[in-house]
Amino acid sequence: MRILSGIQPSGTLHIGNYFGMMRPSIELQARGECFYFIADYHSMTSLTDPDKRRANTLNVALDFLACGLDPQKSVFYRQSDLPGVCELTWIIGTLTPMGLLERAHSYKDKTAKGISPNFGLFAYPVLMAADILLYDANLVPVGRDQKQHVEMTRDIAIKFNQTYGDTFVIPEPEIRAEVATVPGLDGQKMSKSYGNTVDIFGDEKATRKKIMSMTMDSRTPAEPKPDADKNLAIQMLKLVAPADVSADYENRLRAGGLGYGDLKKALFEHYWNYFAPYRAKRAELAANLDYVESVLRDGAQRAQAVGASVLQRARKASGLV
Ligand code: ADP
Ligand code: TRP
């Protein structure tokens, strides 16, 4: 079974990215052959600063390796090191109905926010489909917001197979129900674009401040809170603390007597400890950038071996060769 996923270097990675996509991807290393990549072509739809793209790309590589991506088990590469994906985007784009792309939530959300769309933003799901189809991926671990994109990939692959004969593997999304949408500090989905993130490797003081200033309601500490499970700090604590610890805080909040300040302090401590070993690993990697570069170079070579043969299959099926 081949497992594949990608993450954009469009900003600093946060715990929504970690619990929604990175941790499931890392755990899946035990279940199949994994291909994970840094989607730098995709980041061009929202970021136009070349230095930032370079810096973010390196940071995503460091973050992912620090959190447990194992280059012995996974093929880890930079999307643009394999430009064949752009050719495949064109090939499958000619079979992609406009209507399908017009219905994409992410596209509709962005245009609704007033972003004036360019061709790249509109074609984003076709490039993502090419990412997946180029490597015969069976399973795509992502957060819930990406589900529609994987479904579009399936539609495109099925259409291609019907038109030109059996060529592509039809992939399945893998979405973990318990972390499908990690909430941000304001209760909306945690996202780089909403300014509501807790970064995986955030600065200690700044992150403590962010967590301590999370808005809660105005009930007194003594009041029982029957809706304790909906409390944002409890929801986040469930991600970073052992189950019995978060259950204990939830019960104390429900019963009354636990103040929000104490709850937020506990949340910060557990968050900080959860990522402590990864922080140490990250510092080691950051002192050895040649190694990180060599992982990506090696990943690109291994990905190329698979991608080139699938691309040739698609070229043959469609009569380009
Ligand atoms: P962002 O919304 O911050 O820009 P991306 O779109 O780059 O995040 O997402 C990268 C990966 O992380 C995707 O698989 C996405 O589904 C997942 N992800 C992002 N935010 C969350 C979240 N709040 N909860 C769960 N998964 C998330
Ligand atoms: N669109 C994904 C995101 O924003 C990133 C991505 C690009 C991706 N290509 C992919 C994810 C292929 C899974 C498979 O998060």
What does this structure look like?
It is built from 14 helices and five strands. It is mainly α and 321 residues long. It folds into two domains: 209 residues, Rossmann fold; 73 residues, Tyrosyl-Transfer RNA Synthetase (Orthogonal Bundle). The longest helix is centred in the last third of the chain and has 29 residues. The radius of gyration is 21 Å and the shape is globular.
User: Helical residue percent?
Assistant: 55-70%
> Which structural class is indicated by helix and strand composition?
mainly alpha
Ligands, ions, cofactors: adenosine-5'-diphosphate, tryptophan
Order of helices and strands: EHEHHEHHHHEHEHHHHHH
Tell me how many strands there are. 5
Count of domain modules: 2
CATH topology type of the largest domain: Rossmann fold
**Widest sheet, order of strands:** 1-2-3
Instruction: Tell me, briefly, the overall form.
Output: globular
CATH architecture label of the largest domain: 3-Layer(aba) Sandwich
What is the average of the pLDDT values? 97
Stretches where pLDDT is under 50 for at least 5 consecutive residues are none
Please outline the major beta sheet.
3 strands, parallel
CATH H-level superfamily of the largest domain: HUPs
Query: Beta-strand percentage?
Result: 5-15%
* CATH level 1 name of the largest domain: Alpha Beta
**Rg:** 21 Å
Ends distance = 29 Å
State the helix count.
14
